[in-house]
Every structure is written in C-alpha cells, then in structure tokens.
Write a structure and sequence with these properties.
The protein is α/β, with parallel strands linked by helices. The chain contains 11 helices and 15 strands.
Length: about 350
C-alpha cells in the first residue's frame, strides 16, 4: 500500500499564523509538532517511508524536507502551479502505477488532526483491502458528533459490505449546510462528514478521470511517457499548468457511481478555522483556550494563540486573538470562516508584506 500526502495548500483561514512563507501544514498548531510531521508520523506507522509520496507546491519543497528530516527529496513532487486535488491525485496515480503497479494508495491532507491513530490504521488497512478486491473509490466518512456547518457531508445508501468494518455505497455528496440542514443530517443517521481521506487503486481512479475529467488525459499521458524516458520533472513543470483546476470531489467523486464510504470515528478534525481549533484545545475553568501564555480577568470562552508571547484580556468574551510577528487577528468566535475573505481583501489592498 502506498500513501500520498497533500501538502500544497495555503491555509488562508489560519492567517496570521498561516502565511505564504509558512503555510498551515508547516505550523505547530497544537504544541506537539508541525501538522505535516504529525501526518507523516501517523502514515509511516503502517506504510514504509519509501512508499510515501508528498505533493506540494514549488517553493515549499525545502520546508517539507525541514519538517521531515531524512525523507527522500526525490519523493517530494512540487506542482509548478496549483490545480487543486483532482489533477494532483491523478498525477500521483500515474507515479504509483509506474513505481509499484496497480496497488491501492491512501490520500491524506497534511493539515488534519486525528486523535484515534489505532482506528485510523485499522480503517486504512481495511480500506486498502476493499480497494484491492473491488473496483471502488473508498472515502472515509467521519461519524458526526454534532450538527456541523463547516464540513461537507456524504450521504450513504445501501450497505456495500458488512465485515470487519461496515461500508456503504455513496448516494450523494452535499456542500456545507446551514444549521437547520445540518441538524436534519445528524438526525437522519446516514450522513457523515467528508474527511478528504481516500483509498483506491490507480487504475480505478484513472478510469474515472478518463470518464469525468477528459481534459486531463493528454497531460497524464505525457507524464506517463516522461517517466519512461526519465524526464518526468521537466515535463511535469511544462505540462501541468494545462491541467483543469478542479477538486477531486467535483471532478470525480460527485459523478462516479462506484464510490463507497467507510464510516469511522477517528477523533478527526480538518482544523479548518480558528473556531475548529478552539474546539480541539483544552480549556480552563472559564472556557478559555490558548497556545502561549495568557491571563484573563473576567473573560470567558476565548481563544488566544500567541505561542511566543503573552496575551492579557479583561472583560472580553467569545473572541479569538491570534498573533504572529507584527500581525494580529481579533475575531468574534463563530466568525472565523470569514478570515479567508479578510486575506483576499488584504491581497487586493496590496498588504502582501503581512501575508
């Protein structure tokens, strides 16, 4: 079994801590290690490091190697331009098929947290067996703990297999819902958070790419020929920008009829916003959470993120304060999804020195 770690994102919702020079996946969010290093450690507990590929962007390769001392630089592939997860996973499929044949591989984002590593390993191995024995695209569906509005959902239909773990055919994918819709999903019992973790064989995925992303085929064929000639890097840099820019969800999964979901309870979070981080960190008796030193008087329900400094608050409730260097974010808890809008506005205003 191979693994692909996606480590090319910007993490705009985590500004000012996630910036272009050091995106979220290279940041120590919870005080243990960088998110990439934690993901790599989790994957390498059951997959040999020589069977792990890391996909990132040009300009981030050095940071990948710095985060993973000793990792083979030749197994880090840098996209010359961002084309989202559909093309990147398709390119990885070509590489794996050439390296090892039609073996299943797991794809994981580099910037997610998983507490139940034992269950993750068990589910990954089982998903690998499902993908080996069946022409299916396996997704990990997270059993919802609450009516979340910050995640996409997978709606399941009939049972696919009831075995060591249960798996279900996917009926449809749903975008992030409003609160009422999320409550209905939770009550229904057959809706699961879309984790963005997938397992399949290269041939099965590439067949779907040919059917649903035909614009990518010419480039993929050129990449496969380039591997045989030994000039993959050169062709990759030249041809990859011709790929369509589309996520694997939109490009393939929402259209395919052979998608299967494995519902699992992993203690998972995509840590997609400051609000999500607040839910993960330990809190004091007043509901305050933080990284770095902080002291609060008459303050409740706050998140203070300043690992290298100190934050003091007085009579302030339900706010997020995040500090990096000369940049400070102050945000009402519950509104941190708007941080991406703020970053895009800063880009338009030419405030790139803070990005």
């Amino acid at each position: 079994m191979y693994a692909v770690i996606l480590a090319g994102g910007r993490g705009k919702r985590f500004w000012p801590v996630s910036i272009s020079k050091k995106p979220k996946q290279f940041v120590d969010i919870d005080g243990t290690d960088s998110m990439l290093a934690s993901t790599f450690r989790r994957i390498s507990s059951f997959i040999d490091k020589d069977e792990i590929i890391i996909l990132t962007q040009e300009g981030m390769v050095d940071q990948v190697i710095e985060a993973l001392p000793g990792f083979d630089r030749a197994r880090v592939f840098a996209e010359p331009v961002g084309r989202n997860t559909g093309p990147s996973i398709a390119a990885a499929s070509i590489l794996i098929r050439k390296f090892a044949g039609d073996v299943p591989f797991i794809t994981c984002p580099a910037d997610h947290m998983i507490d139940n590593v034992e269950m993750f390993v068990k589910a990954s191995r089982y998903a690998g067996r499902l993908a080996s024995e069946n022409d299916v695209l396996v997704t990990f569906g997270i059993k919802p703990k609450f009516a979340a509005t910050g995640y996409g959902y997978i709606e399941t239909g009939d049972t696919f297999l009831s075995d060591e773990l249960d798996s279900f055919r996917v009926k449809s994918f749903h975008e992030k819902p409003d609160a009422d819709t999320a409550s209905r999903y939770l009550e229904a019992g057959n809706f699961f958070w879309n984790s963005g973790i997938f397992v399949w064989r290269p041939s099965v995925f590439l067949d779907s790419v040919a059917r649903y992303m035909p614009d990518a085929l010419v480039v993929l064929n050129h990449l496969e020929e380039a591997i045989d000639r030994g000039d993959f890097d050169k062709v990759f840099r030249k041809e990859y920008e011709k790929m369509p820019s589309i996520s694997v969800d939109y490009g393939v999964l929402e259209k395919a009829d052979n998608v299967v979901t494995l519902p699992v309870d992993l203690g998972w979070s995509d840590v997609g916003s400051w609000d999500a981080l607040y839910e993960l960190l330990a809190r004091d008796e007043n509901g305050n959470a933080g990284r770095g030193d902080y002291l609060s008087v008459g303050s409740k329900g706050n998140l203070f993120f300043n690992p290298d400094g100190f934050v003091a608050s007085i009579d302030v409730d339900d706010v997020i304060v995040a500090v990096l260097g000369g940049a400070v974010l102050v945000c009402k808890r519950g509104s941190s999804q708007k941080v991406k809008e703020l970053v895009e506005l800063m880009e338009k205003r030419g405030l790139n020195r803070f990005l």
